[in-house]
Design a protein that fits this description.
By secondary structure, the protein is an all-alpha fold. It contains 10 helices and no strands. The two termini are about 15 Å apart.
Length: about 270
């Protein structure tokens, strides 16, 4: 039984590496440009043309090329949002644990507010006020997971101060910043990594949902959610426009979930 999860994790890692490399090398690997159109080759079905192995869309654009560019943008947004959320959440959790009082109450209020509100409503509200720029989308994706990191960092840092060794280091004159970064952060790094791997699929789905609703990534840029949204009007006549990016979304999120479960089993002793 132990070999099967390990094998699934290995397969998931290979799939994610392939997707990441394909997106990273999109400008070189894509046979056509993102917006290259051939109106004489509109709605070519997949696997029927060597020139367009995954078919074309309603404007004659190559689906394979757009898929590679979309993978690139979707993964960049998800990775950036995950890292920013982890950094901001961990920093706020450390501040709450170290200073307590009003700062602790403020951070806890923010955590409870973010956790209690349907996030898609909050995301749509932010987009309505700030627009649909890519930078705004990255901020939204960072906000999506910050509360988990903040709660984790706060609780573990408070334990360090409760146990006394953090206070003992402060009494020796060691700066608070060094205590947090050099002594407490390494002890919670594994838990943060587990949260990041488990949070990544949600980032992909969040970007997909926003783009599918038309408030995420805007043309001429393209993401997996954008391709899915444009293809929904052609499900009965050109299913591949929506189905192919949809399959990639399912495979990438499932692979990351399986890999995250394996990482949790390896790094979190309580899950074993």
């Amino acid at each position: 039984m132990a070999g099967r999860p390990r094998g699934l994790a290995g397969l998931s890692a290979i799939i994610l590496v392939v997707f990441f490399c394909a997106g990273l090398l999109a400008p070189v690997a894509a046979p056509y440009g993102l917006e290259d159109m051939d109106l004489m080759s509109r709605l070519v079905a997949p696997f029927t043309s060597l020139a367009h192995p995954l078919g074309t869309d309603e404007l004659g654009r190559d689906v394979l090329s757009r898929l590679l560019y979309s993978l690139r943008l979707s993964f960049v947004l998800a990775v950036t949002g995950t890292l920013l959320g982890a950094i901001v959440g961990t920093a706020l959790g450390f501040l709450a644990a170290r200073f307590g009082g009003f700062i602790d109450d403020l951070v806890n209020t923010g955590i409870d507010f973010t956790a209690s509100l349907p996030f898609i409503v909050l995301a749509l509200t932010i987009l309505a006020f700030l627009g649909t720029d890519v930078k705004v989308i990255i901020v939204i994706m960072a906000v999506y997971g910050w509360d988990r990191y903040a709660r984790l960092a706060r609780n573990l840092a408070r334990s360090a101060y409760t146990e006394g060794y953090a206070g003992a280091l402060e009494s020796l004159g060691i700066p608070t910043r060094r205590i947090l970064l050099r002594h407490i952060l390494p002890n919670i790094a594994s838990a943060l990594v587990v949260n990041m791997t488990l949070n990544f699929p949600g980032m992909i789905l969040l970007e997909t949902s926003l783009s599918f609703l038309g408030v995420g990534v805007q043309p001429p840029m393209s993401s997996l959610g954008t391709m899915l949204g444009f293809g929904r009007d052609y499900l009965t006549t050109a299913w591949w426009i929506a189905v192919i990016p949809g399959v990639v979304i399912v495979i990438s999120t499932l692979s990351m979930s399986l890999l995250g479960d394996w990482v949790q089993q390896k790094l979190d002793p309580q899950s074993r």
